[in-house]
Amino acid sequence: MLEKVREVIEKEIKPLLAFEGGSIELVGVENGVVKVRLMGACAGCPMSQFTLVNFVEATLKNKIPEVKEVRAVAPFGINWE
Questions:
Q1: 81 domain residue, yes or no
Q2: For the residues of 28-64, what is the DSSP string, one character each?
Q3: pLDDT score of 33
Q4: At CB < 8 A and 24+ separation, what contacts does 58-66 make?
Q5: Averaged pLDDT, 16-26
Q6: Do the domain assignments include residue 41?
Q7: Least confident residue range of 13-27, 33-47, 67-81
Q8: Which of 5, 25, 43, 44 is 20 to 30 A from 77, alpha carbon to alpha carbon?
Q9: What is the pLDDT of residues 23-65, one digit of tens each?
C-alpha cells in the first residue's frame, strides 16, 4: 500500500499543491493511516487542515480504498506538543 500511496501523492497531489506554492512529503503508512508532512506555503497556511482532509485524504481514499485516514505530522523544526 505504501507504494500506491506514494504514487498518488507524487502524480496527483504534489503537482497541484506545487501550483499554489506548497508541497507534501509522505512520512509513512500504518494500518490504513497515512502520515504526511505539509511543506512550503501549505505548512503555514490557515487552510491546511481543509486541504489535508478535503483534498489529500479525499484523493487518497478515492484511489486507494484501504486508506482510512490522513494525518499531518509537524513540519521540520516545529514541535506541536
A1: no
A2: EEETTEEEEEEEETTTT-TTHHHHIIIIIIHHHHHH-
A3: 96
A4: 59/8, 59/12, 59/13, 60/5, 60/8, 60/9, 60/13, 60/34, 63/4, 63/8, 63/12, 64/1, 64/4, 64/5, 64/8, 66/1, 66/32
A5: 93
A6: yes
A7: 67-81
A8: 5
A9: 999 999 999 999 999 998 888 788 888 899 999 999 999 999 9
pTM score, two decimals? Answer: 0.86
Instruction: Please indicate, yes or no, if residue 79 is contained in any of the structural domains.
Output: no
Please say if the pLDDT value at position 17 is more than 70: yes
Residue 19: CATH number of its domain:
3.30.300.130
Residue 51 lies in a domain: yes
The range of the structural domain enclosing residue 63 comes to 2-72
Buried b (16+ CB within 10 A) or exposed e, 52-78: beebbbebbbeebeebeebebeeeeee
Number of domains in the chain: 1
